Amino acid sequence: MAEEGVVVQDDGAAQETAVSTLAGEKRPREEIRREDYPSKNAYKKALKDRRRLETKRVRQAERKKEKALQKEQKKEERLKEKETLTPEELEEKKKLRLEFIADRRSKQEERQRKLKEASESSTICVIDLEFGDLMTESERKSLAHQLMYCYSSNLKSEKPCRILLSGLDGSIAESVHALSGFDNWPVGKEKGSYLDALSGRKEDLVYLSADSENVVREFDPSKVYIIGGLVDRNRHKGVCQRKAEGQGIATARLPIQDHVKLQTSAVLTVNQVFDIFLKFRESKDWGKTLKSVIPSRKLSSK
Ligand SMILES: C[S@@+](CC[C@H](N)C(=O)[O-])C[C@H]1O[C@@H](n2cnc3c(N)ncnc32)[C@H](O)[C@@H]1O
């Protein structure tokens, strides 16, 4: 089918007419010539891409216009309101506005401080993303969201850690990079394994796994804890435990059964394990930490 504004002739050449904008105007097309493209399809694609760009530009311009209009309306409303206020009310309004600005600035500063603290923390928590191929696309998306929760919890934490995402490659990298703002997260991002990223620290690595015989009593600050980046409803039973054993890395499970009773299995999600890691380091209280992180529907009332 021919592009809007383009007449494709019998010999395959296209005669350019004009582009319809969203505003309904007709604009001449910049020259995209058939002879510059190896095939009719490539040529049509170029036209299509440019039309998409033009539509985007028109929409952007319309949004900008709309915003300017709204700003102007608000300004007028404020001026009208001002005329009806007493000098005391005006003074009070000004005070509130200044307080709001100061509060917003201090929140921004606090956020910057947290970001810096987290990226410089000496405690590293690895999230191992080498399991992309064991998950479906929707599981990978779900994992990407769990990583976002981890990142956000870390920023809010009293004792943030340095997050290292290892194995950030292939299909999982695609899902993770699709997260809004991900490229600006100040976290470690490694395509390769944690074994390479942390070479020389193999002795310090502890892979967290619900299948381990060892139990975490405290998080040792000299160790690096690894969480398996997997959303699988435990379809791949014991995969992280076997991986760690194969690599000669220590493993440990959280002391869940010692402190709470669960209705379901003790295999938690990545962000729940990460939150437990953060919260226990703050409170040193397993009962309190586990109850605050594990959803109540999972906890048994007995
Ligand atoms: C959804 S689980 C993955 C389950 C997977 N089938 C496996 O073999 O571990 C995601 C990760 O959270 C961590 N995890 C979950 N429950 C845990 C527990 N009770 N103790 C220690 N780590 C746990 C592990 O690092 C695990 O790889």
TrEMBL record:
Top EC group: transferase
Annotated Gene3D superfamilies: 3.40.1280.30
Coiled-coil intervals, chain numbering: none
Domain SAM-dependent MTase TRM10-type: 111-301
Region (Disordered): 1-88
Signal peptide limits: none
Single GO MF descriptor: tRNA (guanosine(9)-N1)-methyltransferase activity
UniProt feature, compositional bias: Basic and acidic residues: 24-38, 51-88
Enzyme Commission number(s): 2.1.1.221
Gene Ontology CC terms: nucleus
GO BP annotations listed: tRNA N1-guanine methylation
Protein name per UniProt: tRNA (guanine(9)-N(1))-methyltransferase
Natural source organism: Chloropicon roscoffensis
